[in-house]
Design a protein that fits this description.
four-stranded antiparallel β-sheet, 10 helices, about 300 residues, about 35% helix, globular, six-stranded mixed β-sheet, about 30% strand, alpha/beta
C-alpha cells in the first residue's frame, strides 16, 4: 500500500504541493487529477524518490521510498522517455536490468507483451522507426516489465487509437487484479470514471475534492435528465431548478440543480410523446470543471 501523508513541496517561494495526503491500497486504482501546473508531476517525482518533500512522508508497504524500493515501482508517462536509437529489445533489456531483473526474465516477459500488443515483429526494430502509438506500447511495457507493486500512469493512452486503448484498459485491469496499486492521471475524465475508485483533485497544489468516486457523484446535487421525444425547450427552461438544456440530434440533456426537480420536469412534458426519460448523475467532467472553477474564483 502507498501512503502519502501531509506532504508539501516548494520551489523557492512557489508552493507546488500543499499538505497532500492520500493512500492507495493493494489492487486499487486511484485518480490524481488537476489542470497543468496543479502539482501532479511534482507529486509523482516525490513518490518515485526523485524529489524529497519539504515536509510529510511517503511510504510503500511501510517503507520509505528510496533506491532500495524504486525497483518495485513502474511509471508510464505521456512524454516519450525512450532511447530512440536503440532497438525495442535492447531498450527493454536496459530498463529491466536497471530494475534488477535477469536477462532471461526480461526477454520472456518482453515476448509475452509484444505478442499481446500485436507487435512481436518489431522486437529488433529501432524505437525511432515505430509509430507514436507503438512507441507508447513500448513505453507501457517498460513501465510494467518488472511487475511493479506500484504503477503510476500519467496520460497512458496518449497517441493510441480506440482499439489500442482497449488493449491498455484490459492490461491495466489485469494488473489491478494481480494486486498492483495504481495511480492514474488523465485529462480525459471518461477514463478516470472507467478505472478509478478513489480520487483527489488538485488546484495549485491544494486538494479541492477527494474521496470515493461513487460518493462524490452521489453527493453532487446536480443531475442530468436525458429525454427523447417532442418537447418544448422554452417551456422546460421556465421550470424552477432547470439550469440548462443541451440539444443534440438524438436527444435533449436537461441539467437540473437537484433530484427534487425531476418530478417538475416530468410533469412539464408528461402530455408529450416521450420515448426516453433517464435521470443520471453528473459526469466527473462537469464536477471537475465546477470544482476547479470555484477554486480559481476564491
Amino acid at each position: 500500500m502507498l501512503e502519502v501523508k501531509n506532504i508539501s513541496k516548494s520551489y523557492g517561494r512557489h508552493l507546488a504541493v500543499d499538505h497532500l495526503s492520500f493512500e492507495v491500497k493493494q489492487g486499487e486504482i486511484f485518480g490524481l487529477l488537476g489542470e497543468n501546473g496543479a502539482g501532479k508531476t511534482t507529486t509523482f517525482r516525490m513518490i518515485m524518490g526523485l524529489l524529497e518533500p519539504n515536509s510529510g512522508s511517503i511510504t510503500l508497504d511501510g517503507e520509505k521510498i528510496d533506491y532500495t524500493v524504486t525497483d518495485s515501482i513502474g511509471f508510464v508517462t505521456e512524454e516519450r522517455s525512450l532511447l530512440t536509437k536503440l532497438t525495442v529489445q535492447n531498450q527493454l533489456l536496459y530498463y529491466g536490468i536497471l530494475k534488477g531483473m535477469s536477462e532471461d526474465v526480461i526477454l520472456k516477459r518482453l515476448d509475452e507483451w509484444l505478442e499481446r500488443f500485436g507487435i512481436l515483429e518489431y522486437k529488433n526494430r529501432k524505437i525511432k522507426e515505430l509509430s507514436k502509438g507503438n512507441q507508447q506500447k513500448i513505453q507501457f511495457i517498460a513501465g510494467i516489465i518488472n511487475e511493479p507493486k506500484l504503477l503510476i500512469l500519467d496520460e497512458p493512452f496518449s497517441g493510441l487509437d480506440p482499439i489500442n486503448v482497449k488493449m491498455f484498459q484490459e492490461a491495466i485491469l489485469e494488473l489491478k487484479e494481480k494486486g498492483c496499486s495504481i495511480i492514474f492521471s488523465s485529462h480525459q475524465m471518461e477514463h478516470i470514471e472507467l478505472f478509478c475508485e478513489k480520487l483527489v483533485i488538485l488546484v495549485k497544489g491544494k486538494v479541492v475534492l477527494s474521496g470515493y468516486l461513487k460518493d462524490i457523484k452521489k453527493e453532487y446535487r446536480k443531475k442530468n435528465i436525458f429525454i427523447q421525444g417532442d418537447i418544448s425547450v422554452d417551456k422546460l427552461k421556465k421550470v424552477p431548478g432547470v439550469l440548462d438544456i443541451v440539444s443534440t440530434p438524438k436527444e435533449y440533456e436537461v441539467k437540473i440543480e437537484s433530484e427534487k426537480v425531476v418530478d417538475s420536469v416530468f410533469q412539464a412534458i408528461s402530455k408529450n410523446k416521450i420515448t426516453k426519460f433517464v435521470v443520471e448523475e453528473a459526469s466527473l467532467n462537469e464536477i471537475f470543471i465546477e470544482k476547479v472553477g470555484e477554486s480559481y474564483d476564491k
